[in-house]
Amino acid sequence: MINSFYKRIREVRLDNNLSQLQLAALCNVQQSCVSKWERGSTLPDAETLCVICKKLNVTADYLLGLSDI
């Protein structure tokens, strides 16, 4: 799951033309959190994952590698 997430969160962030700092601001986290997600060091908590999905118009299933849509 982490293997898919770190690739997909970066892909979706870039598709939305956002920097790590901009995504962090949208999610109310530090830029270092986004960096850790993209390196595969950590995952966001459930609440933050919901925020990411809403702000970037993507499903949690996609980000977590459970679907390809």
Compact summary:
With 69 residues, the chain is mainly alpha-helical. It has a single domain (2-63), classed as 434 Repressor (Amino-terminal Domain).
In CATH's first tier, which class applies?
Answer: Mainly Alpha
The CATH architecture can be given as Orthogonal Bundle
Instruction: Estimate what percentage of residues fall within beta strands.
Output: under 5%
Q: Given the C-alpha coordinates, what overall shape results? A: globular
Give descriptors for this structure.
mainly alpha, 434 Repressor (Amino-terminal Domain), globular
Describe the structure.
The chain has 69 residues and is mostly helical. It has a single domain (2-63), classed as lambda repressor-like DNA-binding domains (434 Repressor (Amino-terminal Domain)). It contains five helices and no strands. It has helices spanning 2-15, 20-27, 31-39, 46-56, 60-63. Helix 2 (20-27) packs across helix 3. The protein is globular. The two termini are 16 Å apart.
Task: Annotate the secondary structure layout.
Elements: H1 2-15, H2 20-27, H3 31-39, H4 46-56, H5 60-63
Helix pairs in contact: 2-3
